[in-house]
């Protein structure tokens, strides 16, 4: 994934940071085979006539939609540790 800082906002009271304020598309499912596998999966799911369509739909779940993004579904796992690892530790 790419994350781009486009600016910053002033901190508001009663909000626990960090938070996600937007994004695009659903996260690829785990174990989908990397970038190549993900694009093959999207190709298969776009064609109900494909021999693998039903198996693929069952695997990802009937409700999975590659266009759906839920900013409230984004979870940050110990962001301070990640920041320190990325920028401060040598």
UniProtKB/TrEMBL annotation:
Name this polypeptide is given: Plasmid pRiA4b Orf3-like domain-containing protein
Organism for this UniProt entry: marine sediment metagenome
Pfam family, one: PRiA4_ORF3
Residue ranges of every copy of the Plasmid pRiA4b Orf3-like domain listed in the record: 1-70
InterPro entries, per the entry: MM3350-like_sf (IPR024047), Plasmid_pRiA4b_Orf3-like (IPR012912)
